[in-house]
Structure formats: C-alpha cells, structure tokens
Write a structure and sequence with these properties.
Keywords: ATP-binding, Glycolysis, Kinase, Magnesium, Metal-binding, Nucleotide-binding, Pyruvate, Transferase. It comes from Actinidia rufa. Residues 341-460 form the Pyruvate kinase C-terminal domain. There is one protein chain. By secondary structure, the protein is of the alpha/beta class. It has 3 domains: 3-43 and 148-259, Phosphoenolpyruvate-binding domains (TIM Barrel, Alpha-Beta Barrel), CATH 3.20.20.60; 45-141, PK beta-barrel domain-like (M1 Pyruvate Kinase, Domain 3, Beta Barrel), CATH 2.40.33; 322-475, Pyruvate Kinase, Chain: A, domain 1. It is built from 17 helices and 23 strands. The strands form 5 sheets. A 7-stranded parallel sheet has the order 1-2-12-13-14-15-16. Helix 9 links the parallel strand 15 (256-259) and strand 16.
Length: 476
C-alpha cells in the first residue's frame, strides 16, 4: 500500500484517528513511507439502517423511497437523506441502492425503476432480488442532478478539524462536477493552513465527465470512481471514458487513479479472470494507481487483494510499451518545449540510450520527479526529496515529508526523504543524496556493479542531466 484513504462518508473522527495512529505505528515498523488521503463524503445519498438488520427486497415488489429519515428502513420503505429527491426524479428513472452500488454483485445491491412520485415519496418497482446488509447503504440515481453542494458542511468540518490537525497529504473530492468545486476546496484548505495538501478530483458522474478537461486543469490528480460511473454510464461506454480520461491525465502529467477493480475479492480469495485482465489493461493504458475500496474495507481477504493486484500491475508493467507513451507525450507537448519539459524528457531519453538501471532526481517540491515520470521511463525514478527550510514569521520548519509522500501517487517514482542536514550541507548535499539513493537502489536489488544511473539535478538556474557509472568507487 502506498496511500491510505480515510473515507469520511463512514464513521467519525475518533475512529479515523485511531486508524491513523495504527498506520503511523505500521509505517515505523516496516520503515516505509505511506501517504494519507482524506476522502470527502460529498453530496452522497445515504440510507441509514440504524438497527443493522438485513433488508430483503424481492424482484417485482414495490418499495417507497421517502425523505422522512425518522422511519426505519424495511422492504417496504427506504428513507433517504435528501429532501429534494422526489422533485429531481421522474417516471422511468433508475435508482440504485446498496453497499456495493450494483457492481454486478446483485445479491448485495438493488436497482429500481421509478413508477410515480407523490409529495416527498417515490414509488419504485424492484428489478432484482437482493439483501441489503450493513448500517449504511449508498443510493445513486442515474444521470440525475442532485442539487447539493459538492463540498458539504460535513466535509468542511472533517477537513478543518481532522484534516488540518493531521496535515493530510491528499484530499479526494467526491462527486466533482465542475472546476469551481476544485477551486472552492483549494481556497478552503488554504484558509485552514493546508498549503501543501494536494487535491484529487473524484469524477464519478456524467456531469463530471462533461467538465473533465477543466477539472483536470485545476486538480492535482484524478480518481475515476467507476462504481458510480458504471451506473451513470451504459456498461459499454465505461471503458471508452476510462481510456480517454487516463490518456488526458498522462498527456499533462497528472496522476490518474481508478477504483473498483477486484470487487469479487470481498468474499473470494482470487479475482475473476475478467477483473485480473481489467487491472492489467488499466496499467497498459497508463493509470498511475489502483484504489481498493470494499476489498479492503469490508473484504475477507484485504492483504491478498493488495498482493494480487500488485502482482498483476507488476506483470503488466513488464510488457508496457513505454516508448510509445514517450512518443505520444512528446508529440502532445510539441515544440518549442519549455526548459523544464526539455530536460525532463532528455533525462528519460538518456536513460534509454545508455540502458540505465534507474534515474535519480533531486527535488524539493516534487515537480521535477513528476515531470520525469510523465515521460514514462522504463526504469524506476528515485526522487531524493531535499527538505526546505521555511518560516511563517513565528517559527522555522522543514518541509519535504509531505512532498515525498505525495510522490507515492505517481507511477514509477520511489521517493526518499533526505535528512535536514543534507539540505543544509551546501555543495555536498547532492553527493550525499545520491549515495543514499544508490544504496537504497542496491538494497532493493535494482542496482548491480557496472550499472549506469542517470542523475537529474538543478545547479543554480540551470538543470543538469549526467550519467554515473556504478564502478566509480565514490558511489559504491
């Protein structure tokens, strides 16, 4: 696991704080970096089943969706937390309810057809037999605009307290529909002293897809939430939008994450063949990361799910046509290139020409590492993050830890956080940092004697790409 997602559509601050403390202990135990992502609730429609009793719904029966949340959910009535739902839907619309939002596991989610509305109530026809299990069920209405703010009061409370207190690395903005949603969140987190936190826009509706280009320009990364997209879009259209979105992310060098990949592993030890192929194809398309949801939240085999998905990704990366990605990105960027794009692409080209074992890049903000990763080198990128001394006029602090963790969201990048004394050691900082990177590469089995390493660093206002041979005893 590279990034731990804390989903604030479930449970409270205390639960998430306990989980975060567990994560911090685990990070120290395994001596690995792990980023923290706060996932907002957004304008999610939810049915709260306070008793936790299973609700059995039978195909061809009728059920009433009501906005009276004081009523107990049952096979006859489902109370939802949105007073305007009856006005938003019409006869013939499709409504989905369940823990897994109709991922194909019909036993745990149900889809219904709207028959009529009467005041705040919606009468529906149940289309499949299913048992709703759990305390919270998510409701989604296909291609219907929900007139609720993307950044809700619940989200603002979570960010301003838990998020600010824990200096989260990422915020995942659920149900991002317009570029203004991202801008609003950006302004909000800056007002709460989260200047380093990155925003990943979660695109999960047709409305978000319509404004995808603008959203991509403003966000730091994109999460394609295929659970809801698979409902809003006809099944035969999902792959097309996924490929298009990943391609656009690749061209501008921003991370693309996809979700809902091995849903069958919530209850089974192995994924289906279709799921395994789906994960591999996402890697070949250029996705940066795989986000697991129910597989690790409620699944019976969370560790196995991560291991298997990781193995599939590794296998797909072995046959990935990186040179094709390189050519596509070069063509998209065009000429004349900016100075930064030129040297980043040159570093990747040099690594190919000399058959380098890895690329080492020195960075403070992470931008240089992202630019190199954008050109999809066929070798690992070791990003040595040099801490930067900063002051807010009251105290001096080192930045760098968050920047290192944020690089875990970028494909092919291995971030290494240098110690503050490297940052303050003057001209020897790069040499010291390079030794750290090379030793780390050797410990991981990525480097052997006589290997060549491409090094990217800034010297004053210039950027330098050089090649280091491992037989040079200074770097052994």
């Amino acid at each position: 696991m590279s990034v731990a997602r804390f989903d604030f559509s479930w449970l409270d601050d205390n639960y998430h704080q306990e989980t975060l403390e567990n994560l911090r202990v685990a990070v120290k135990n395994v001596k690995r970096l792990c980023a923290v992502m706060l996932d907002t609730m957004g304008p999610a429609l939810q049915v709260h089943n306070k008793s936790g009793n299973p609700i059995e719904l039978m195909a061809d029966n009728h059920v009433t969706i009501t906005t009276d949340v004081t009523r107990e959910p049952s096979a006859e009535v489902l109370p939802v937390n949105y007073s305007g739902l009856a006005k938003a839907v019409k006869k013939g619309d499709t409504i989905f309810v369940g823990q897994y939002l109709f991922t194909g596991i019909e036993a745990t989610s149900v889809w219904m057809e709207v028959l009529e509305t009467s005041g705040p109530d919606i009468k529906c026809l149940v289309k499949n037999t299913a048992t709703l299990v759990g305390f919270i069920f998510t409701m989604h209405v296909a291609q219907v605009h929900i007139d609720l703010p993307t950044l809700t009061d619940v989200d603002k409370q979570a960010i301003s307290t838990w998020g600010s207190r824990n200096k989260v690395d990422f915020i995942s903005l659920s149900y991002t529909r317009h570029v203004e949603d991202v801008r609003e969140l950006r302004a909000f987190i800056k007002a709460h002293n989260l200047h380093e936190t990155q925003i990943f826009a979660k695109v999960e509706t047709v409305e978000g897809l319509r404004h995808f280009d603008d959203i991509l320009q403003e966000a730091d990364g994109i999460i394609l939430s295929r659970g809801n997209l698979g409902i809003d879009l006809p099944p035969e259209k999902v792959f097309l939008f996924q490929k298009s979105a990943i391609y656009k992310c690749n061209m501008v060098g921003k991370p693309a994450i996809i979700t809902r990949v091995v849903d069958s592993m919530t209850a089974n030890l192995r994924p289906t063949r279709a799921e395994a192929t789906d994960v591999a194809n996402a890697v070949l398309d250029g996705t940066d990361g795989i986000l697991l949801g129910p597989e690790t939240l409620r699944g019976l085999y969370p560790i196995e799910a991560i291991k298997i998905v990781g193995s599939i990704c590794a296998e797909a990366e072995l046959v990935c046509n990186q040179s094709l990605h390189f050519k596509r990105i070069n063509k998209h960027v065009g000429e004349p290139m900016s100075h930064a794009e030129s040297v980043a692409s040159s570093a990747v080209r040099a690594a190919v020409k000399v058959k380098a074992a890895m690329i080492v890049v020195f960075t403070s903000s992470g931008r240089a590492a992202r630019l190199i990763a954008k050109y999809r080198p066929s070798v690992p990128v070791f990003a040595v993050v040099i801490p930067r001394l900063r002051t807010d006029s009251l105290k001096w602090t080192f930045t760098g830890a968050s920047q290192a963790r944020q690089l875990l969201g970028v494909r092919g990048v291995y971030p290494i956080l240098a110690s503050p004394n490297v940052a303050t050691s003057g001209g020897s900082s790069e040499e010291s940092g390079l030794k750290i990177a090379l030793n780390h590469g050797k410990s991981m089995g990525l480097l052997k004697p006589n290997d060549q390493v491409v090094v990217f660093q800034k010297v004053g206002d210039s950027s330098v790409v050089k090649i280091v041979a491992l037989q040079d005893q200074r770097y052994i």
